[in-house]
Amino acid sequence: MTLTQPVTTRHDASPEEREFVLKQIYQQVLERQLYESERKQLVDLEKDFIKGKIGIRHFLKSLAVRPIYLELFYENSSNMKFIENACKHFLGRAPKNNEELHEWDDILVRHGVGALVSELVDSEEYRKSFGYFTIPYWHEHRFESAGEYIENEKLGHEHAGQRGWAIPTHYQHELHIDCDGGTCVREEDKSKVQEVPPIEEVLDLSTDTKMTPKHIQRLSLCVKEITEILSLYPQPVTPKEIETDLQQKVLEYVSITNANLLFKN
Asked: Which residues pair with 177 in a beta bridge?
């Protein structure tokens, strides 16, 4: 989780005070503390900060282009989800709307991560909210709509990766999908999915068990539901490919004749 209270340093802060501030920066930007092996990657950056050679803003911009931040939040993330996390880490809020998301996306695509984070940290909003000596933190601000408030509440309580790395909270809210746990499901389908019994209950079959219409109906429902759910999750796999894989799996439980009945449509 990110910070929810301001942590401020001074130009003449002691090395011990700066060590404390470093830990708070990591909590805000990485959403956790560093492992010892990771800290070795940042020795030069930490040394300059503790000696007072660089300030918080310089440290933030440098940290954002180091492998540790990129591996955690950029390399396995969609651009839009990365932008959402960057706003969370460096502005202490969720993106306001589609227009802002696309504005930041244009900078990210054209100029890269370093340019995007520099725009955030050098912005007038950052200066007014945090100045030069306060670490960015999750803070209250004026919301333009109820939707923006809801999205900020969700993102503010979200652990890294809790709702996946593909769809930002803003789109989840707009599309009425729930990505809690990392897998996205339409809210209207959640109750349907929950009604499907566990697969071991549905497929209580052995090689000599006769397939009944009830078996076929239950299996068909499972296949269609799983296919529909997986097709929502952004990946280079088509629903047809998913269904083909599921057919192969079903053949492990039923005969070819019964499988043909199941998938004849």
From this structure: 186
List, for residues 40-55, the tens digit of each pLDDT value: 999 999 999 999 999 9
Residues 210 and 173: their CA atoms lie apart, in Å, by 45
90 residue type, one letter: F
* 56 domain-assigned: yes
Residue 193 lies in a domain: no
pTM of the shown model: 0.69
**Domain that residue 71 falls in:** 15-161
8 found inside a domain: no
pLDDT in tens, 133-152: 999 999 876 677 777 777 78
Q: Is residue 50 part of a domain?
A: yes
Handedness of CA 136, 141, 143, 144 (dihedral sign): negative
DSSP state of 77: S
State the total domains in the chain: 1
Q: How far is the CA of 206 from the CAs of 34, 209, 211, 262, in angstroms?
A: 51, 5, 10, 17
